[in-house]
Protein: Sigma-70 region 2
Amino acid sequence: MAAGGFRDNHDDSLRELLVDASKGDVLAFEEFVRNTRAMVFSYVLGMVPRDMVEDVVQDIYLRLWRAKGSYNSDFDAKAFLFTLAYRSCTDALRSHSKQLRNIAAVATEAQGTGEIFPISQSDLAIDLTVLSKEQKEVLLLVGGEGFSYAEAAEILGIKVQTVKSRLHEARRLLQRSKENSRDSSRENLA
Structure:
């Protein structure tokens, strides 16, 4: 069987499980979670700091259960799930960023008093990758999860051309970073 045939059968199976879950079938929901958890975990791992992954994954499935009545069986189950995943990651990052700003503000205020060690905003950076959040989202959906450009655009609520542009830029930056890392390694060996 062709790879596309497997994906179609798997997608149909996921759709059936989500349709049953949307009617309140807890066993179907549990099976849906078992069948999708690894790919959702992988996506979230690339989107949020490692210490937030489990909580965000749990939030995604909680949102899915709460939204079960709104699932339209004409809509792709995986795309529906990843739309919720994208929103959960975005909300978690927004909340996390606000917490970091609050910590930095408190630390900055305390610097003059000598009560705590000074902390700069750069000390609080969690994600040090070369990609922007937007580039990472597109790269994970298209490259990591196998969504088409159109599907990724729908999940993210952007145009297909924007997906292509972000993906191109992400690949360019990753290539440049890889080359810089290689050059740096060579210099250290010399």
User: Anything to note?
Assistant: Confidence is low (pLDDT under 50) at residues 1-6, 103-128.
